[in-house]
Structures are given as C-alpha cells and as structure tokens.
Design brief:
By secondary structure, the protein is α+β, with helices and mostly antiparallel strands. It is built from two helices and two strands; from the N terminus they run E-E-H-H. Strands 1-2 form a two-stranded antiparallel sheet. Strand 1 (10-11) and strand 2 form a beta hairpin. The longest helix has 6 residues, at 21-26. The radius of gyration is 17 Å and the shape is flat. The mean pLDDT is 79.
C-alpha cells in the first residue's frame, strides 16, 4: 500500500478557506528572533518579517 498525501478539501467553487480573524484576536502573533526556527514560518507573514529562515542544522557547532 502506498502512502498517499490527502488532498485539501474543496467546497463549492474551490478550496475551502479558513477565517483566521477570530483566532488572531485570542492568539495574536508575537514575532521575534525565534521565528527563524518555527515550523510555521512559511505560513506566517509576521514571522517572515521578523526573522529570516534558518537551516534545521544551523544551531549545531561546526566540527
């Protein structure tokens, strides 16, 4: 059996969009220097403005 990635749900007229406004009110973004390590950086405009992305292994000392 092949592992298949599920397709995004689609409603009438195209993909379903989620309104983030109600959640942003209770959980506002708090961008900072740690945003460069965040897994959600590519989806977060505030985080992309606060910090540039880093490679996963960037914190390890060089040998």
């Amino acid at each position: 059996m092949k592992n298949a990635v599920p397709r995004p749900r689609s409603g009438e007229g195209g993909p379903v969009t989620v309104r983030h406004d109600p959640y942003d009110e209770h959980f506002p973004p708090r961008p900072g220097s740690l945003c460069s390590w965040c897994d959600f950086l590519r989806h977060c405009p505030e985080g992309r403005q606060a910090a540039s992305p880093k490679e996963p292994w960037a914190a390890l000392p060089e040998a």
